[in-house]
Design brief:
The structure holds 2 protein chains of 2 kinds. Chain A is α/β, with parallel strands linked by helices. Chain A has 2 domains: 2-209, Rossmann fold, CATH 3.40.50.300; 218-281, Alpha-Beta Plaits, CATH 3.30.70. Helices cover 31% and strands 27% of the residues of chain A. Chain A is built from 10 helices and 13 strands. In chain A, helix 2 (91-99) crosses helix 3 and helix 2 (91-99) packs parallel to helix 4 (129-141). Helix content of chain B is 74%, strand content 0%. In chain B, helix 1 crosses helix 5 (104-135) and helix 3 (62-91) packs antiparallel against helix 7 (172-189). Classes of the chains: A alpha/beta, B mainly alpha. At the A-B interface, helix 2, helix 3 and helix 5 of A face helix 1 and helix 4 of B.
Chain lengths: 297, 249
């Protein structure tokens, strides 16, 4: 069963169409990440899923219910991109208060400890950006939700906090919790998400597991020395485009598989360069940039 | 490392529990806010003491001083403090976030009214005791106490509705400025700082919510007119707030 089912969604702000015929399905227990440039329609889509905005067209079901159904309020945990928490209260007071709105919340001290908030006794407004994000995540979890909707939850977090977050999300996925989130860190989700939906100009332009998207990305390789690419083009044959984009940085475009990557490595070493001189890169970020035409995040 | 068990979901707390807990949380935040305490408690107490001890603002009897101080406390709490806190909560997305929890938008509004009532009850108790200690006069007529209570309830309804209308339509900074300006207008215009009968607009003072509240609490016989004025302010404010209030800034 789909935890989230969005069909032909259209949302406009006056004359500007922010979401234009968007389709998205997220299976229960999976983690779906929305990637897209600023203004692509990610946050607007989340707003509709949360019932904060009424769509101009299309249908949306969340856990089988319309997004505005009051029954969802105890089943959905939320991290909003901007604010959302009382700025004068301490993290502990905030987590305890939100827990008090549920009949059987998680033990608040467990949530506080797990998110590393136990020593933060300053008001929320005096916390760093990463600390505020951790408080928001704690609040989103404390009511034992079945679905998490997280808008850029790792913004401002240091690498250690991000690792804690992703480990936590893995655990929750194993317990059947569904997550729909946005991020501007494609490479950190490439090994964590079950599904990546790339949104551009208000519509989903790619929707697949991360590895499938990575496989569509061009391969980049760098070499400490200048390379004459003529013979490499002959090695790779038809359907591949090889170019030196900037000195020492080369791009191979086409359906590059494991065999082609191996061929590139062999070609470089056969031309007198050590394999240590060469770094071959293929990433979700490259796939994303390719799909969105290099639009800014 | 602690494991968080989300395998079983949680039902929401009961509606009454949610509203009560939100009101308790908001009241705690309000009591920790120095500016808010100054506005809602220190100023009404200060006015009461000054009027009773120095006669500042015109000669008034102890009951008149108490009525003015309680009206000032109601105005500060149900209108100015409510508008400012709601305006900034709206700007910081707190209203939107709480609307997504089991509390919901209606629960939040109920909690906001409840917290005003709780604070006003404490303020009134303090002001009554202070009046008794300083002047020796204590309220004793049950009918008049009931009428004063009805007036306070209606004034809280009216002032809260207008506070939410302002906070839910203007930017937080504009709400802050307007709420303070209206506080001064209603304080002076309604006869809280100076007795209404000494004001040039004394015939109009009773049409303001504060003037009507003063009249409702002062009149020894059933004061239909001031209670009716408060109902009109409350209904108009509620209709406008229901129509124009926006949860997001």
């Amino acid at each position: 069963m789909s935890a989230i089912d969005v069909r032909s969604l259209v949302v406009s702000y006056g004359p500007r169409t922010a979401v234009d015929g968007l389709d998205l399905r997220v299976e229960e227990g999976s983690t779906c990440v929305l990637l897209g440039p600023n203004g692509a329609g990610k946050t607007t889509t989340l707003s509709v899923v949360l019932g904060l905005r009424t769509p101009d067209a299309g249908t949306v079901r969340v856990l089988g219910l319309p997004p505005t159904d009051v029954g969802l309020r105890s089943q959905v945990g939320v991290v909003l991109q901007d604010g959302g928490l009382p700025v004068a209260a301490t993290p502990r007071a905030i987590v305890r208060h939100f827990a008090s709105l549920y009949a059987d919340p998680l033990p608040t001290e467990d949530v506080i400890e797990r998110l590393g908030l136990e020593h933060l006794d300053r008001p929320y407004r005096r916390l760093s950006g990463g600390e505020q994000q951790r408080v928001k995540i704690a609040v989103s979890l404390v009511g034992r939700p079945r679905l998490l909707v997280l808008d850029e939850p790792t913004t401002g977090m240091d690498p250690a906090a991000r690792r804690v977050f992703w480990t936590l999300l893995d655990e929750l996925g194993q317990q059947g919790v569904t997550t729909l989130m946005t991020t501007h860190q494609p490479d950190e989700v490439s090994t964590r998400a079950d599904q990546i939906a790339v949104i551009n100009h208000g519509t989903v332009i790619a929707d697949a597991p991360p590895q499938e998207l990575i496989d569509t990305a061009p391969v980049w390789f760098t070499c400490a020395r200048h390379l004459d690419l003529t013979s490499l083009r002959q090695v790779l044959g038809e359907g591949f485009e090889v170019a030196e984009v900037e000195p020492g940085r080369y791009r191979v475009h086409g359906e590059v598989g494991v065999a082609e990557v191996s061929a590139i490595n062999s070609w470089v070493t056969s031309h007198g360069h050590s394999s240590q001189d060469v770094t071959v890169v293929r990433s979700l970020e490259e796939a994303y940039l390719e799909m969105t035409g290099g639009a800014a995040w | 490392m602690v494991t968080l068990d989300l395998s079983q979901g949680s039902a929401p707390a009961t509606p009454g529990q949610r509203v009560w807990r939100q009101a308790r949380f908001d009241a705690g935040n309000a009591l920790r806010n120095g500016e808010n305490l100054l506005l809602t408690l220190v100023i009404p107490i200060g006015v009461l003491v000054l009027v009773l001890k120095t006669g500042l603002g015109g000669e008034r009897t102890a009951p008149q001083a108490l009525v003015a101080a309680v009206s000032l406390a109601v105005l500060a709490t149900a209108f100015t403090s409510q508008a400012i806190s709601t305006g900034f909560d709206r700007r910081y997305g707190v209203l939107r976030m709480l609307g997504l929890t089991p509390l919901g938008a209606r629960g939040l509004l109920a909690a906001r009214v409840l917290v005003s009532m709780m604070i006003i009850a404490v303020q009134t108790a303090i002001l009554v005791v202070l009046t008794g200690v300083l002047s020796g006069w204590w309220p004793g007529d049950p009918a008049q106490i009931a009428q004063a209570g009805a007036g306070i309830l209606l004034a809280v309804w009216a002032l809260t509705a207008w506070a939410l209308l302002i906070a839910g339509t203007l930017r937080a900074e504009a709400t802050l400025a307007l709420a303070n300006a209206v506080f001064l207008v209603l304080m002076f215009g309604g006869g809280l700082a100076i007795p209404a009968d000494s004001l040039p607009w004394s015939s109009m003072a009773g049409l303001l919510p504060t003037g009507a509240l003063v009249a409702a609490m002062s009149d020894p016989v059933l004061a239909w007119m001031p209670l009716g004025v408060l109902v009109v302010w409350a209904v108009v404010g509620s209709v406008l707030a229901g129509r124009f209030f926006r949860w997001e800034g």
